[in-house]
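Lab notebook page, bench 4
Experiment: in silico fold of construct C2
Operator: M.H.
Input chain length: 447 residues
Purpose: comparison with the prior construct
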Amino acid sequence: MTNRIKMPPRDKFTLILLVGMSFFLMCDLYITPSIVPELAEEYAVDKGVIGYVGSAFVLVGAVISLYFGFLTDKYSRKKLLLLTVLIGEIPCFLTGIHAITGNFYGFLAMRILTGIGVGGIYPLTFSLLADYFSDRHRAIANAAIDIAWGLGVMMGPILGGLALNTDYGWRLAFILAAVPNFFLAVIYWIFARDPQRGRSEEKLGTALDGGAAYAYRIKLVDFKRILRNKTNILMLVQGIPGCIPWGVLTFWSITYFKEIMKLSQADATWAWELFGVGTAVGLIVWAVLGDKIFRMNPKWAPVYCGVGVILGTLPCYLFLNLSFEHLSTLFILVFIGGIMTVVCGPTQKAIFMNVNPPEHRDSIFAVNNLFDSLGKGIGPAVGSMILAVSGSYIFMMNFAVSCWILCGIIYIMGYFTISRDRRDMINLIGRRAADLKGMTSSATTTE
């Protein structure tokens, strides 16, 4: 069984490709927030209107991810992943062509189409990880993708800033973000494989090694079962208040640092980059700790997430509201804030994997992406509405951070549900493993 749990070199390389493709898709996502003033000036629209573009980008992708989640449970995940990357990167590349985005509506259309690809890759990626890794290592595997997204968050604004200093202008950033994924997609098509569904589940391993196939696939009626799982409900609902801050912070932070804290474009960008570096560091640390906590006792995993999220608001309140004589002090607090705000990311995804059978995971991640995207998607719009009503960047940012407190409380409630839901999933897998062994034995006897 040890050999089954270990990830073959080919799958490790596939993980690297998944990390790379996720990184460049996220680069594209976070170019726009770094060039809001330039977009508003070129298209002669209010800055708040650009916030609604960010919301449309995320929300359309979230709705599409539901469909991809359903398809993922039925068709080749390798082909679907390749399709989503291309759907995302072709319009990203076209965003960099002036003839396509010479007016605001062309820009809006390309951003929405790119959002479809970003939304589709979410359920596909985490479904694949669930079948590459056992439940002992899923949080760390998830962290690899989360880190790629975090690094993408950092690189997007850098590309935006660099492009502004070229004769071609901001459009160059979108071209640079898109091109690498065309090469990665070709390499992925050549080398990657579809992992056998259910392969990483300990109780299914023997039956699958004996020649059985995990033929269970999701049906529409199964969505009722998914939503009867109380841990699923809590982990989904927390995504709305939990992701509003990410929607606001990622879209408005650079503008906030420039407009309110009077930082230069370079310093404002580097402040946000340090936040991104902090998230990358935090994802590694919290994923390792989260795996250990889950192995000790699964019911403490949601408490760990909830308490961590609430504590993460403290450095954010400090760097948003204090005045700093030395820029280094601001940078340190921003870095700490980045570390503290990602406590729950990898562990929350591992919780989903560990309370849902293999054929449900694609769809639960699609639904999770919808709930998270509701938060992230309405975040820029919420910021735009608050600015329109109050005119206060400070109130907007503090309101967003406060949403993490509600998110943390919802997480903590998972303490009372996860043990039962985990046990139900293990029992279901056990029954299916017995059925598969019986089918294999019968086939052998017949032969």
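Observations: Residues 358-390 form the longest helix (33 residues). The chain has one domain: 10-439.
Next step: discuss at group meeting.
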